[in-house]
């Protein structure tokens, strides 16, 4: 299964995007056929497609869709709408920019080639992150044949193309016989952990326990977790990391419990144009998601609510950041130098 992919042109029918509608999981595995940029922007806004790597591929494929299906005078505005669909995840903008640059240089065929290259890079990159992440855990936690790891939100194949980031590492642990069980935070308000991560773990046959978000600190303090693995939607130059709301609380609890806290994300999620977490724009998705779930009211209709989709974890609380190219361990001495300002040759591991 691929979370998102391009369906080539057939006969007189132009090519289009096919993606898994994640809003219907776990009850139904349903794919959407996306033929317009507006439909893709809507799918991104509704979280039918979500997760930083998948959004990057969606952005690039969306540009390919735009340049092949819209009049020339409408393409640039459509690309701008697509780029702004979700502001916190840097991968969406990067995917759009990559394919748009190719389109302006070489036209529709070049745009599609760039998008498909990004798709293939994501598949290879997730495999590389799984290898680096499992090797790092073996080094950080020697003598433990099987691990219990805690995670939040969904960072599996549904957040990428074929494999995942943090959940991709967990999948590799399971395949290697090194996973005892995963502990999955439900991830309010939209329950991506309960709906999506639990579904993926079940499909791979891995043992897991689902917990309410507010139980995570207690579970960590109780000593039953070996490591915390999370994804990222944007990593600042100094190593501060934006991820699903609740991640910062997990990092604080992990530090208290002396449990390694690992961020697993592709190199494309590193944004050296953002100096620190203070410069990351945090998307607020509005009160409705907090006041109700699946259309069922859970609070007074006029309740005031805040709904930040992400929070920022300071680099000082992160044991290591694992990308497809390297492992960065932002020790205090490195933080002042901004670890992601260093070249890959200096930091590659």
Topology, element by element:
Layout lengths: L3 E4 L8 E5 L10 E4 L2 H9 L6 H18 L2 H12 L6 H17 L1 H33 L6 E5 L14 H10 L3 E7 L6 H13 L3 E4 L4 H6 L5 E4 L3 E3 L4 E4 L2 H11 L3 E4 L5 E2 L16 H4 E2 L2 E2 L12 E4 L6 E3 L4 E2 L3 H4 L8 H4 L2
Parallel strand pairs: 4-5, 4-7, 5-6, 7-10, 8-11, 10-15
Antiparallel strand pairs: 1-2, 2-3, 8-9, 9-14, 12-13, 15-16
Structural overview:
With 349 residues, the protein is an alpha/beta fold. The chain folds into two domains: 4-121, Four Helix Bundle (Hemerythrin (Met), subunit A); 129-347, Translation initiation factor eif-2b, domain 2 (Rossmann fold). It has twelve helices and 16 strands. The protein has helices spanning 37-45, 52-69, 72-83, 90-106, 108-140, 166-175, 192-204, 216-221, 247-257, 288-291, 332-335, 344-347; strands at residues 4-7, 16-20, 31-34, 147-151, 179-185, 208-211, 227-230, 234-236, 241-244, 261-264, 270-271, 292-293, 296-297, 310-313, 320-322, 327-328. Strands 6-5-4-7-10-15-16 form a seven-stranded mixed beta sheet, sandwiched between helices. A four-stranded mixed beta sheet has the order 11-8-9-14, covered by helices on one side. The longest helix is centred in the middle third of the chain and has 33 residues, at 108-140.
Based on the model shown, name its key terms.
349 residues; alpha/beta; Four Helix Bundle (Hemerythrin (Met), subunit A); Rossmann fold; seven-stranded mixed sheet; four-stranded mixed sheet; 12 helices; 17% strand; disordered C terminus
Strand content: 15-25%
Radius of gyration: 20 Å
Class inferred from helices and paired strands: alpha/beta
Q: Assign an overall shape.
A: globular
**For the report, how would you describe the main beta sheet?**
7 strands, mixed
Mean pLDDT equals: 92
- Count the E strands: 16
Query: What percent of the residues sit in helical stretches (DSSP H or I)?
Result: 40-55%
* Terminus-to-terminus distance: 30 Å
Total of domains: 2
* Unreliable sequence segments: 342-347
